[in-house]
Amino acid sequence: MTDSSTRVEEHLRRWMASAPPGSRLPSSRALVAQLHVSPVTVQSAVGRLAALGLVESRPGAGTFLRGTGPRTASDHRWQTAALALTGGEPRGLPAALRPAAEGRIALHAAYPEPDLLPRRLLQSAWSRVGRTESALRRPPAAGLPELRSWFAQAIGGSAGTGAPSSTDVTIVPGSQSGLAATFGALVGAGRPILMESPTYWGAILAARHIGARIVAVPTGPQGPDPDQVRMAFEETGARTFYAQPAWANPTGSCWAPDRARAIMEIVRSRGAFLIEDDYARDFGIAPGPEPLAADDPDGHVVHLRSLTKSVSPSVRVAAVIARGPARARIQGACQAESMYVSAALQEVAMEVVTRPAWKTHLRHLRGELEQRRDAMVQAVHQHIPEARLETIPTGGLHLWLQLPELGDMPDFIAACEARGVVVAGGDEWFPAEPAGSHLRLSYSGPQPEEHQEAVRRIGEVLRECLEAQG
């Protein structure tokens, strides 16, 4: 696909995001005049959208935006705020961590399959680090200075606009450890913390572990409504908001720039912290938003970024970036839990991400994720037309489907596994009661050649369950 075709497709996607289903797309002549491209380029972009099931051509009438799902897939997110729902009890081992039996197609994976990782870079890094003194020495408690500097520079921004420095960075053994330490330092037992709903199950687990009171804020394709965020702060007195503004897990959504600005204004006015979990920074298919921490001179944003998913699950290295007194408190909490992160692991991470081949790997990864995402989107439109796919993510690792209301989600998941497909039901991504029946499907897992067949089986199971419940 050419750059011009990509530009036309992105223009149409933005137009489609605010247009109701059934709307007629701008004519080819209008797009040619507006975007200064050829008719062939427009046809290529529209054809790609049609192949994904997003638009349909009607001879003699034009091209129209397809509906995103049946009316039976209701939207109950508003009840999250209306009922002031708060978190309940843990629900056992998360689906994303459950092993898949041999012969099953795994669409529940939490981590990219090995073929999506920088295998050669990693093997070379282990070999080099194994010949150094790293395995024999203790690193500085806050982390190796070179790695701390890399994480600070990776955020972007400029020193004059409030970008962080290396002294603001604490290296931790994975983002889950960083979340637990940050929640413990900034929230504490019995105190409220705002969370998007749905959101990352690991954050829910970490907050429950310290006894925090989770306050769910409904979110959507553009992020949470700033008015809902303001209301949650006012009604609960919370001073902390955990969020994933870029390619959120599980929804894949990105905060719209105007919403991000409005929410940051609310956070500042409340004298609060926003914990920005930037887990998917290395998995952008299209350019993503700049991290909120890139322009935060007063230290309201606590930024988390991990290399565990993008480098290797065995390299559990992440960073918590905070400024002011909060940094010292978080560092103390991190060191009380783990003292320091292995110098060898830190050096391996540095060896991988500072090599020129790392950027080459990320470019290849973007193309591979795009192909896998598009294939799975097409399969969902073809085989599960009952599902509502509200967001086609421009980054991340998953699709988030809303299904028609199912009476027993565990039975549906078990039926899928009996057909040879392991899926992750959506309930555990909700900090409180789920707003409907959902599935998270990973397009980054193994056996991508089997994903279409897996989606077909899921569609069959869904229709059988709906028929059985009448």
From TrEMBL:
PROSITE patterns reported for this sequence: HTH_GNTR
InterPro entries the UniProt entry points to: Aminotransferase_I/II_large, HTH_trans_reg/aminotransferase, PyrdxlP-dep_Trfase, PyrdxlP-dep_Trfase_major, PyrdxlP-dep_Trfase_small, Tscrpt_reg_HTH_GntR, WH-like_DNA-bd_sf, WH_DNA-bd_sf
Ranges where the HTH gntR-type domain occurs: 2-68
SMART domains reported for this sequence: HTH_GNTR
Protein name: DNA-binding transcriptional MocR family regulator
Matches recorded under CDD domains: AAT_like, WHTH_GntR
Molecular function GO terms recorded: DNA binding; DNA-binding transcription factor activity; pyridoxal phosphate binding
ATP-binding as UniProt keyword: no
Entry keywords, A to Z: DNA-binding, Pyridoxal phosphate, Transcription, Transcription regulation
Family in the record: In the C-terminal section; belongs to the class-I pyridoxal-phosphate-dependent aminotransferase family.
Organism classification: Bacteria, Bacillati, Actinomycetota, Actinomycetes, Micrococcales
Organism expressing this protein natively: Nesterenkonia xinjiangensis
PANTHER family reported for this sequence: HTH-TYPE TRANSCRIPTIONAL REGULATORY PROTEIN GABR, TRANSCRIPTIONAL REGULATORY PROTEIN
